[in-house]
Amino acid sequence: MSLNDNIHQLTREHLKIGPDGALRQAPALLAELRNAVTPGNTGSAGGASGPPIPINPEAVDMLARMAGDAKADYREITGNPWPGDLETLLQHIAAMSLAADWHAYLERLTLEWVNQITAFLWPIKPRRKLTGKTCPACGLALHGDERAVCLSLGCWDDDGNLAKIGAWDIECGSCGAEWAGDQVAWLLRALDTPIEDVVHVS
Ligand SMILES: [Zn+2]
Description:
By secondary structure, this protein is an alpha+beta fold.
């Protein structure tokens, strides 16, 4: 993605592909990150006697680091401090004509921020371990010095929701065998693992 695309996603409402493959409008990533700073803040102002609003320190740190980095870069490029906030600075940068090396550097930096915010707000759920099940390819249920479970099931979409079974996959951490598509339902049956158990056991 280009620098302007990254800044657009960070600072403005943008189109995002949903789990159904359809485009929908999503808030600016930095706005979502700012919301995550106070997850308990429902918008109704608590009185002085109310409980303190919980603060998510990781979100605070990310915002402070990004604002600090962007302002330091702006100062280095222009020789001037930036008086406003991070969003207005990024939008200003998007409209600047930058030297090629600065452009490339900021493109990498803003892409890192898009990825960091996305990973923080929507962490990828871990694969389901198929504990006690033997891999039909290598015959092992556990492998390595740490006795790790061999078979794992991928059943989440990018938003952390349960994917359709046709999109699931099973892989063996020991021999690397993989099953996908229709093979997954077949293998779960062969392993005597009802799909309902896989879905409902956390
Ligand atoms: Zn295996």
